[in-house]
Amino acid sequence: MIVAAWHDGTVTAPLTPPHQPQPNDPWQAPPSGSHVLPGGNPGAEERRAELRQSAVIAAVLTVAGVGLGLLWLWLAPRVPLVSDDTAVFLKNSEGEEAIGADGTFVLLALAFGLVSAVAVFLFRRRGGIPLVVGLALGGLLASLLAWGIGTWFGPTSDVVAHAKEVGKGVTFDAPLKLHAVGAAMLAWPIAAMIVHLGLTALFGPRDPEPEWEVPYGAPHAEPGTGSAFGPAGIADEPGAEGGRPSDGPGPGRP
């Protein structure tokens, strides 16, 4: 209820006190003791679901690192060594087996990154920062696990004891090592992120096109007649300049 007051012939109305919010204010805080209904924030639920899926993806990819480690142990070329009871030497000093071990790991990691990105895209059918983070983190942890499996189950790292065990002049395998550790560890995460982003850009869902609507109160122009405020609308006005003449006689006309 608004109470008006007269002051020198003018009417003034009191303003709403600042401590009393408008009853229809959508931004005012809910009254004390009220509770938000469950499901009232679908955006937060979707973000929590994406975080859970990201954690599951990272865990599954980490376990897949066991396969990468076993394949690397099986396919990586061995570096032959030989001992003469005083020192251990490379049997083939010009061999490229050490570089081949790094190359095998990187190629296998790239293949695992490609497969994991395709699988995640087919599972989720959309992009998102949590999914990409899950892919990258899972690929990195899987690469670390594969590296550990290859070196643990490969030839022993105690070269001197191994040389004494096999004897003088007997060829044995050097321990499986990675020389370019940084490139080997990042091959899977980088490949997975690039492939997933490419698949999302090519086959992911598209945002709907904005629909342009005629503002309220604006006249609708018929096809071929032009706008109501354009030349066609002016020409159609009876008696307008450039329009068709009126049917009835006017001033100064016979």
Task: Give structural notes.
It is elongated and about 85 Å long. The chain has a domain at 48-78 and 94-155 and 172-202. It has helices at residues 42-75, 97-124, 129-153, 159-166, 181-203, 231-235, and strands spanning 5-7, 10-12, 80-83, 88-90, 172-173. The chain has six helices and five strands. Residues 227-245 have low confidence and may be disordered. Helix content is 48%, strand content 6%. The strands form two sheets. It has a three-stranded antiparallel beta sheet with strand order 4-3-5, with helices on one face. It has a two-stranded antiparallel ribbon with strand order 1-2. It is mainly alpha-helical. A hairpin with a 2-residue loop joins strand 1 (5-7) and strand 2 (10-12).
Output the structural class: mainly alpha
Tally the helices. 6
- The counted number of beta strands is 5
Share of residues in helices: 40-55%
Note the overall shape. elongated
Q: Could you name the ranges where pLDDT drops below 50 across 5 or more consecutive residues?
A: 227-245
Major β-sheet, in short? 3 strands, antiparallel
What is the strand content?
5-15%
One letter per element, helices H and strands E, the order comes to: EEHEEHHHEHH
What's the overall average pLDDT, rounded? 75
Q: How far apart are the termini?
A: 67 Å
Strand order of the largest sheet: 4-3-5
Radius of gyration: 39 Å
